[in-house]
Amino acid sequence: MYFALPIILGNLFQQLYSLTDAVIVGRFVNLNALAAIGGTGWVRWAILGVCMDCTMGFGIVASRRIGAGDRTGFKEVVAAGIEFVLAAGLSLTLLSCLSLDFVLHLLHIPENIYEDARLYLWYASVSIPVGLIYNMACAFLRAAGNSKGPFAAVVLSAILNVALDLYFIVDLHWGVCGAARATLISQTAAAVLVLFLTVRQEPFRTTRNSWKWNPRILRETSALWIPMLFNSIAISAGGVIVQRYINSCGAIVAAGIDAGEKIYCLLETVEKAVCSAISVFVGQNLGAMKMVRIRKGMKSMTVFAFLFAAWLALVLLVFGDSLIGLFLNKNQDPADLKEAYRAARVYLNVQCVSIFFMVPMHFYRGAVQALGHAVYPMIAAFLQIAARWLTVALLVPALGMVGMCLPDGVAALASLPVVVIPYFVFMRRMERE
């Protein structure tokens, strides 16, 4: 639990990137600018998801080496991770930049916000190498038992992002471009700091032998990050289906739902942070063959996160109106403000219930991945695509705005058995063995 706390706080600060962009753009520019940032949200989620899931695979393998006391093996995983970052960073950035217009047309981005959306997504694309470096370094630090270093890096980065957002948007009037530049600079600062923390520690100092071709590590890491990669792609594909429909409803509705999504990210942050901690915790104890400790750790972190999520849901229900107001410029047309506010309020109300399906889904998905069975989260991701598509096709026409906000909860509920049941099955099997 103490190991997870810095990850939770760090992820909360990391959410300040997109939250600050949305608040300052919404307050000091206009709703169209807010919609330009929110309209590409699922694509940017896919970029972040690829960075986190791929690096998490290396982090799980590294944590197993630490749990088994294999420092030489840990250095070999670090070297393989560096090679992966170099290769993936270049190829993913090139692919993302070349497909910008195709993606924007696929999302049905309205013409009046198209250029701003394209600009923001371009900056997100060129930041992929930075994101990979940051997440890989954090994964290795956490595998070695250091969750405070990544927390310090993200706090510094979040503070820098707020300051740059205010300067670029309020003082220089750069609008969406200013928000994108502030985020890129802040992420780069965080990546530099975690790199500095890794090179100072002995376990990360590789030798010439660490860089030798090692098919075993390649197979072990690939067995984790390839299914995770398909997992992120599948989840984001389902999200694109929903985002495409939301964007077709116009910039005002898209801006309102984006405001609700940014607020809800504070809830989702707790789940993802504890999920990251669970993956490392399970990986370390699996390497040491301490199965009872895995069960106890899963139980304590699940109880903690459920209680914390319930508290945050209550806060958003009580103070949601004030939080939504942070994103909306009062000088906008009153009818537009009313429509945007309604969309944000409905989204928050629905997601405050959905989180109680997402918590166990994310937790047990992370645990199953760390146990070495990443195929089940991948199956769950494809179930989520079907659930989101069916929700948009069947529930949106019947329920309107409420139906537009249901896909995430329905997707989590549909995929929950696919990750919970395998966890208990594999735990019992390994305990018997």
Describe this structure in words.
The protein is an all-alpha fold. 86% of the residues lie in helices and 0% in strands. The protein is globular, with a radius of gyration of 21 Å. The model has no long low-confidence stretch (mean pLDDT 83).
Short description:
The chain has 433 residues and is mainly α. The protein has helices at 4-14, 16-28, 31-38, 41-67, 71-98, 100-106, 114-126, 128-143, 148-171, 175-199, 215-248, 251-287, 291-325, 334-370, 375-399, 401-405, 407-432. It is built from 17 helices and no strands.
Helix-strand blueprint:
Layout: H1 4-14, H2 16-28, H3 31-38, H4 41-67, H5 71-98, H6 100-106, H7 114-126, H8 128-143, H9 148-171, H10 175-199, H11 215-248, H12 251-287, H13 291-325, H14 334-370, H15 375-399, H16 401-405, H17 407-432
Helix pairs in contact: 1-9, 1-12, 2-3, 2-9, 2-10, 2-12, 3-7, 3-12, 4-5, 4-8, 4-11, 4-12, 5-8, 7-10, 8-10, 9-10, 11-12, 11-15, 12-13, 12-14, 13-14, 14-17, 15-17
